[in-house]
Amino acid sequence: MDARQRVALNLRRLRVSKGISQDDLALAANIERSYAGHLERGGKNPTVTTLEKLATALSCDVSALLAPLPDGISIKPLKSGRRSQA
């Protein structure tokens, strides 16, 4: 697994475990939502600055985005679609 794919899987794993949507993550990290999606799919290479923004938004250290994934990990998707405004 290359570093970009490792970042992608860790980003998604951390985001889903905290119950944060891609929209909310992008807003908190001050990046475009579509860019967050590209990063989660491993389609784009993030800069160190972007990794710092994402780590801050996820309340974790940058190293968590580069950490080896545990064997047998499964990442459950969040419910799709936008949240309704209450």
UniProtKB/TrEMBL annotation:
Domain of life the protein comes from: Bacteria
CDD domains: HTH_XRE
Every HTH cro/C1-type domain range: 11-65
SUPFAM superfamilies: lambda repressor-like DNA-binding domains (SSF47413)
Coiled coil: none
Keyword Cell cycle set for record: no
Record's keyword terms, sorted: DNA-binding, Plasmid, Transcription, Transcription regulation
InterPro entries: Cro/C1-type_HTH, Lambda_DNA-bd_dom_sf, TransReg_Diox_bact_type
Pfam families: HTH_3 (PF01381)
Protein name: XRE family transcriptional regulator
The species this protein was found in: Rhizobium beringeri
